[in-house]
């Protein structure tokens, strides 16, 4: 499988990501969906992780499907769902999004927290082809990606120390930038009180310029309607660290007329 899957890191993801404003993100996504006429129906959360956003969108009235490759992440998501009452329980599926296989077409797809950055160029194109395949005409795809600016100026070769003192956690996060490959390799080491040895994981993020994403979307019949700052939800800036893209499925690949190669 080509998609990166968190293992032990999954059990500390929420603690280390505690600053994430899921409530605002879910409101912003719902607003964009409804502005494009998607007020209900099946919505797929690609790279759903521990299900925080998936369950909020379920509460908002969507029939949610959460997709993730990490069985550990999905286990946590299922536990969260079991602890709350919901009129529309989400369905969680363990799948690689480059091999996405749904039961039919859906009204919308979302992908947040730089899930798509984990895919190398060929896999990213495969993922877009699968995503478009399972979208109804006029379905909406809302996704974010870490920008080249973030990789080149913020992440690059920095070492970050993250602490969660209430949980006795210390996380050392070392980034290594490879400009030639347009990727950042991330080495994570987590120490916790009572642990005999630290937990270690390694993964990569690739960065893509907006022109590349525009070409991919056009190739698979996705019409980009908006490109915004993924943190402020305002206009995209030169130094935006995350871009949020809204696209609508308008036509088939054949109808789009896009069949050229993409420079990577």
Structure description:
The protein is about 30% helix and about 30% strand. By secondary structure, it is α/β, with parallel strands linked by helices. The strands form two sheets. It has a seven-stranded mixed beta sheet, with helices on both faces. Helix 2 crosses helix 3. The radius of gyration is 18 Å and the shape is globular. The two termini are about 20 Å apart. The relative contact order is 0.15. The C terminus is likely disordered.
Please supply descriptive tags for the structure shown above.
disordered C terminus; four-stranded antiparallel β-sheet; seven-stranded mixed β-sheet; 28% helix; 264 residues; single chain; 11 strands; 8 helices; alpha/beta
Report the sheet with the most strands, covering strand number, pairing sense and barrel closure.
7 strands, mixed
Note the gap between the termini. 22 Å
The ordered H/E elements are HHEHEHEEHEHEEEEHEEH
Report the C-alpha radius of gyration, rounded: 18 Å
| Fraction of residues in H or I helices | 25-40%
How many DSSP H or I helices?
Answer: 8
Low-confidence stretches: 256-264
Structural class: alpha/beta
**Strand order, biggest sheet?**
3-2-1-4-5-11-10
The 3D shape can be described as globular
